[in-house]
Structure formats: structure tokens, C-alpha cells
Specification:
Oligomer: single chain
GO molecular function: heme binding; iron ion binding; monooxygenase activity; oxidoreductase activity, acting on paired donors, with incorporation or reduction of molecular oxygen
Largest sheet: 4 strands, mixed
CATH class: Mainly Alpha
Number of domains: 1
Helix content: 40-55%
Structural class: alpha+beta
Cofactor: heme
Radius of gyration: 22 Å
Bound molecules: protoporphyrin IX containing FE
Keywords: Heme, Iron, Metal-binding, Monooxygenase, Oxidoreductase, Signal
Strand order of the largest sheet: 1-2-7-4
Number of helices: 16
Shape: globular
Protein name: Cytochrome P450
Distance between the termini: 52 Å
Family: Belongs to the cytochrome P450 family.
Order of helices and strands: EEHHHHEHHHHHHHHHEEEEHHEEH
């Protein structure tokens, strides 16, 4: 369960020393006794360009600088209290999406609309982040009928689309200097261009927030993230980490439910009586499709041992969460979608780590689970769902930093008769 590859600690010759861990015991060993040693991140050339030379929270090496940023993120921006304050914003965005779907269904033949779930969920996730980070709602109009995004979110999506294809641990450009010297594939040009656009964009959001602040427009608890950070003077970028992961997980959850109508019916019935029971479905989705299947890469800052093997300083650590979550020694029929595994604490003691473990664990977990829960709960409660033309959803997985669905999810949605009045009033 420990794999090794590459020689030499850095990527100067197109290779890099790496250790791949794919069992629950070894993952625990890496993030308990070796947690401090593995708390660094390898900095690939593409990441160096994108992360202000390693200055972003997710890419910074372990030390006082990272600790400081992490404290700001965990305490000021993503704490349970902050997330509770953000909930009305999230619900507002979800309601806006439901309103649009309801309108589309009313206008469609037979009262059911064909919905591009992937696009909708990504847009929603980005809008939630835009709204909590910069409060851009004012610049959006309902007349923009078929999109769930503000113009700012649109602009940011274009920047993300330019960057995402060049992320990931198997990017040749990062390993082979010759490709970089001649900027083969024009990667450098594209990344620098995207970073420059991102700078201009963020600067604009910050200036707008400053103007609002000067005008006395900020009200305590409902402050945007930028306002919070401005008051601490530590503006850092959290958009990248939170968008794709959240929307992809919701998309997989909907796909699983469409292929398991009995689970969908059960969830609908339960939500009608007690909101919040979609948690087992979310856990099971994150078990089968962890949005970061290899976590983010870690790097050792000193020699250590993993599973009895010597691991030298400067080795990249990849933790295969995808394999750990499907370990047949731990999970019965690991490939099957069975949310009941998580009922009544039945899965307690089994390692589920879609957000990682140890000190570099995802600080956005509370926000992500709240957002996914609200979105999924609302979609299941408000609509009856069907597969397009009754055809089984294609569950083929794509590659990259996250696990995208190869065929973007589409589904038929029909407003539930019992909720007609409620939907009209949204
Ligand atoms: C389903 C949603 C999400 C999943 C599955 C997820 C998963 C992860 C994972 C696996 C890591 C790396 C842990 C490691 O290195 O061992 C991570 C890091 C991180 N995540 Fe998330 N994440 C999600 C949503 C979010 C959200 C909503 C935010 C914030 C808005 C966020 C912010 C971050 C940051 C800043 C880091 C870097 C932390 C550090 O290096 O110290 N994530 N996430």
C-alpha cells in the first residue's frame, strides 16, 4: 500500500521522488506522528505563478506565515459562527436558482424542464462564494433570466476556466524544464495572463468594498469576507479552493440519486418530515467521489518513516483517498451507493477523509457541507426528478485535480404538486 516513484527530490530532470499511500492505516500514520513533517507543499512552477510565489494559504509552506493565514481563515472567515451568518446568503442564492428552474418548468412542454445540472451547480456555488466574499448581488438583475451568476461571477469563471486545465499533479509542463524554456503549449503565457486578470478583478472588488465601507454600508455580522479581511488587512484569495469542489460533489450526489430513484423517494419523504436527513447521502457521495481524490500534494521537510520504509526529506506525498474510501477490507460492496451505511452512526470508526486530515485539512469543510446540504435538500424537496429520456446517468469519471463527471449531468425537473403555492411565492 506504499508506492514510490521518481528519483531526486526536485523536478529538475523531469522526475520527482514521491510516495503514494492508499490504506487507512498508513494515511493515519502520515497525518498523526508524521503530520508536521508532511505539512509542506511541493511548489510546482505552475503553482508558483498562480499562488503569488507560494504565498497563498493552500500552497504556503508550513511555518509562522502559513499559521497566521490559517488562523485568519479558520477563525475570521470560515468558522462555524461565520458560516451560520452566511446561511441566509446561501439560502437566498438557492431560492433564486429554484425560481429559475420553476419558471423553466412552467414554460416547458409537459411541465418538466431539462436542466443542465453541472452548469447550474457550478454557477450557484460560485455565486454563493462571490456573495459571501464580495457581495456582488447588487450588480445582478433577475432579467438575466437563465443564469445564476452575477457579471462578476461570470468574469471570474472565465479566469478559472483558463487556469483549471493546467492544474494537477500530472502536468508535463511542471516536470520538464525544456517545455518551460520554450514555453511549449504557451502555458506560461496563459497562466500569467490569467493571474494578471485575477489581480485586476480582485483589486476592483476590494476598491468597491472600500467605497462601501467609507459610505458606512457595512453592517456587523453580515460583513462580506473582503470587509472582514480588509479590517485585518490580510486579503487572500479563497475562491479557487471552494467552487469546483462544492459543485462537483452536489452534481455526483444528484447523479447517484437519479440512478437510485428509491433513495431519492426516501430522501424526499424524510425531508418532508425533518429537514437535514440528506447527510447520509452527502457522506456516501464524498466516499465514492471525494472531490480531491489525491488530496493536495504534501511534501516532507525531514527524513521520516512510513509503514517502516525510509522516506527522505523533500519527498512528495500523495494520499489516494479514492482507494481508501473503496477499500473492500473496510466497506462492504465498496462500489455500491448505499447511504444507509451512515445511518445511526453505523460507519463510526471507519476512516472517511474527503477533506483530508491533520493540520493541513480543509478549513472550508463547514461551509462546504452547509452549502451542499442546503442545495441538495432544496432541490429534492421542491422538485420531482427524472433521468433524461429514462436513460441511466453515465457515471464515467474524468481526470484532473478534482473528479469531474465526464458527461456533464443533465436531468428533468418537475415542480412538486404539493409545493406549487410555495414555489410561486419564492
Ligand atoms: C466538497 C467541498 C470540498 C472538499 C471535498 C475539499 C477538500 C479539500 C482537501 C482534500 C484539501 C487538502 C487537504 C490536504 O492537503 O491534506 C483542501 C484544502 C483546502 N480547502 Fe477545501 N474542500 C472543499 C471545499 C472548500 C471550500 C468551500 C473552501 C473555502 C471557501 C475550501 C478551502 C480550502 C483551503 C484554503 C485549503 C488549503 C488549506 C491548507 O493548505 O492549509 N475548501 N480542501
Amino acid at each position: 500500500r506504499v508506492g514510490a516513484g521518481g528519483k531526486g527530490g526536485n523536478n529538475g530532470k523531469g522526475s520527482r521522488r514521491a510516495v503514494v499511500v492508499s490504506s487507512p492505516e498508513l494515511a493515519k500514520e502520515c497525518f498523526t506522528e508524521n503530520d508536521v513533517v508532511f505539512a509542506n507543499r511541493p511548489l510546482f512552477p505552475s503553482q508558483r505563478i498562480l499562488s503569488f510565489d507560494g504565498a497563498s494559504l493552500s500552497m504556503a509552506s508550513y511555518g509562522s506565515y502559513w499559521r497566521n493565514l490559517r488562523r485568519v481563515a479558520a477563525v475570521q472567515v470560515l468558522s462555524a459562527h461565520r458560516v451560520a451568518c452566511m446561511s441566509p446568503v446561501i439560502s437566498g442564492e438557492v431560492r433564486a436558482m429554484v425560481r429559475r428552474m420553476n419558471r423553466a418548468a412552467a414554460a416547458a412542454d409537459g411541465g418538466a424542464a431539462r436542466v443542465q445540472m453541472k452548469r447550474r451547480l457550478f454557477e450557484l456555488s460560485l455565486s454563493v462564494l462571490m456573495e459571501t466574499i464580495a457581495r456582488t448581488k447588487t450588480s445582478r438583475t433577475e432579467a438575466n433570466a437563465d443564469s445564476d451568476m452575477s457579471p462578476e461571477a461570470h468574469e471570474f469563471k472565465q479566469i478559472v476556466d483558463d487556469v483549471v486545465p493546467h492544474l494537477g499533479t500530472a502536468n508535463l509542463w511542471d516536470y520538464l524544464p525544456v517545455l518551460r524554456w520554450f514555453d511549449v503549449f504557451g502555458v506560461m503565457k496563459k497562466l500569467v495572463n490569467a493571474v494578471n486578470r485575477r489581480e485586476v478583478f480582485l483589486r476592483r472588488l476590494i476598491d468597491a468594498e472600500r467605497l462601501r465601507e467609507n459610505g458606512g454600508g457595512n453592517d456587523g455580522e453580515k460583513k462580506s469576507v473582503i470587509a472582514v479581511l480588509l479590517s485585518l488587512q490580510k486579503m487572500k484569495n479563497l475562491f479557487g479552493a471552494g467552487t469546483e469542489t462544492t459543485s462537483t460533489t452536489t452534481e455526483w450526489a444528484m447523479a447517484l440519486l437519479l440512478n437510485h430513484p428509491e433513495a431519492l423517494k426516501k430522501a424526499q419523504a424524510e425531508i418532508d418530515t425533518a429537514v437535514g436527513t440528506s447527510r447520509c447521502i452527502i457522506n456516501e457521495t464524498l466516499r465514492l467521489y471525494p472531490a480531491a481524490p489525491l488530496l493536495l500534494p504534501h511534501e516532507s521537510s525531514a527524513d521520516c518513516k512510513v509503514g517502516g520504509y525510509d522516506v527522505p526529506r523533500g519527498t512528495m506525498l500523495l494520499v489516494n483517498v479514492y482507494a481508501i474510501h473503496r477499500d473492500p477490507a473496510v466497506w462492504e460492496d465498496p462500489g455500491e451507493f448505499r447511504p444507509e451505511r451512515f445511518e445511526d452512526g453505523k460507519a463510526e470508526g471507519r476512516l472517511l477523509m474527503p477533506f483530508g486530515m491533520g493540520r493541513r485539512k480543509c478549513p472550508g469543510e463547514t461551509l462546504a457541507l452547509r452549502t451542499i446540504g442546503l442545495v441538495l435538500g432544496t432541490l429534492i424537496q421542491c422538485f420531482d426528478w427524472d433521468r433524461v429520456d429514462g436513460v441511466e446517468v453515465d457515471m464515467t469519471e474524468g481526470g484532473g485535480l478534482t473528479i469531474p463527471m465526464t458527461v456533464p449531468l443533465e436531468a428533468m425537473c418537475r415542480p412538486r404538486a404539493a409545493l406549487h403555492g410555495v414555489l410561486q411565492e419564492l
